[in-house]
Amino acid sequence: MAPSRVFFAGGALAAAATALAVAAVLLPPGPRESSTHGRPGSSAPRLELGPGPGREGFARATAVRPFRLPADHGPHFEYQTEWWYYTGNVAAGDGRRFGFQLTFFRRGLTPGPPAAEGLATNQVWFAHFAVTDVAARRHAGVERFARGAGGLAGATPVGHPEPGRAGEPYGVWLEDWRADGLNADGSAVRLVARDASSSLSLDLELRAAKPLVAHGDRGLSPKSDEPGNASYYVGYTRMAARGRIGANGIEADVAGEAWFDHEWSTSALGPGAVGWDWLSLQLDDGRELMLFQIRREDGGLEPASGGTLVDRDGRTQRLSGDDVRLEVRRRWTSPDTGATYPSLWRLSGTGLDLVVEPWTPDQEMRTSFLYWEGAVRVSGWAGGRPTAGRGYVEMTGYARSMPGVF
């Protein structure tokens, strides 16, 4: 079994925190423990993060490149860090709302794929699974980690198929947590995750409503001015979601919308950067907005910050950091960790004037490293007309500065 940790958050209640540029050591698992305030016991297994082997030998994202499906849904072992990220907002027939996150991360310790046989590996995999029960104002999550060998964790397809030959279908998994492609290009997928310790469960079918979006410069997403300090970043910004979700002792049939991101890189935050804020918003007018801003220790923003506005028909507009303003209107302090996060934003620019607010403020991810990842609701104006929507927000670097971690 893969080691796991469980945490819960309640009461007043994506990479992405999470592209790790550190080596990982899997400590021996102890008894699974959970806490209503999210503190796993001292014997709980954890992913210990320490100085990494460096980026030498790994490929860097330096130029625009074509993307091929489903091959590029698979792993890119020549790059150090990679993640597959699913989030969404769904509702049961009685109107009860849920947010969900299921994210798979790959960390290469050395360049290249793992050995074909045996348990020796140069790949560490970990995954985060969380559900927000909006009516109960409760957020709960689990993390798991495993070596990328022996079938414990991995992703397909591996490599590009020969011309005229079909490749492996898209899939990524860590033990019985899985995302499996249902069609040739990976635009339809089934997500399955279940954890008895937390009573969380997920079995959803997602189908893309729009073509694949290539963020940044046709898929090349810079993180600073340093050449090669960038990622390849693609995803489906609106997917119809249908299936079942379980949390807090109930399981319900649900339907709604989801978001998928796939990003890979050998990258790091630039000098003076401390963390990032990332928003994925789906508006009721049929458009989507992805926005990220990299925060600096001097209070400014990294010039590489920006985003993508996706029109109703799937056409995209690349946004710079000057195109959209994100103003913090309220903050929330975690009673468990003491970290203080933004908890209400006003977003303005490109014809938008929106208020973005968490469905519940405590959606802190108390995994082996701390970050905030949660479901949000949107209200305001778009093009002079009232609008609403839903989405997800990720915030890193508030509990601990990210350099040395990312």
* CATH superfamily membership: AttH-like domain
Determine the structural class based on helices, strands and strand pairing. mainly beta
Q: How many strand elements?
A: 26
Strand content: over 45%
Count of helical regions: 0
Provide the CATH topology: AttH-like fold
What integer is the average pLDDT? 86
Query: What is the global morphology?
Result: globular
Domain module count: 1
**How much is the radius of gyration in Å?**
20 Å
At CATH level 2, the architecture is Beta Barrel
Order of helices and strands: EEEEEEEEEEEEEEEEEEEEEEEEEE
What are the low-pLDDT stretches, counting only 5+ consecutive residues below 50? 11-43
Distance between the termini: 27 Å
In the CATH scheme, the class would be Mainly Beta
Give the biggest beta sheet. 14 strands, antiparallel
Please estimate the helix content: under 10%
Provide structural commentary.
With 406 residues, this protein is mostly beta strands. The chain has one domain: AttH-like fold. 0% of the residues lie in helices and 52% in strands. It is built from no helices and 26 strands. It has strands at residues 4-9, 22-26, 47-51, 81-92, 97-108, 123-133, 138-147, 153-156, 171-174, 177-181, 188-195, 200-208, 213-214, 220-222, 230-247, 250-265, 273-283, 288-296, 306-310, 316-320, 325-333, 340-349, 352-358, 364-366, 370-382, 385-395. Strands 1, 4, 5, 6, 7, 8, 9, 10, 11, 12, 13, 14, 15 and 16 form a 14-stranded antiparallel β-sheet that branches. Strands 17, 18, 19, 20, 21, 22, 23, 24, 25 and 26 form a ten-stranded antiparallel β-sheet that branches. The radius of gyration is 20 Å and the shape is globular. Residues 11-43 have low confidence and may be disordered.
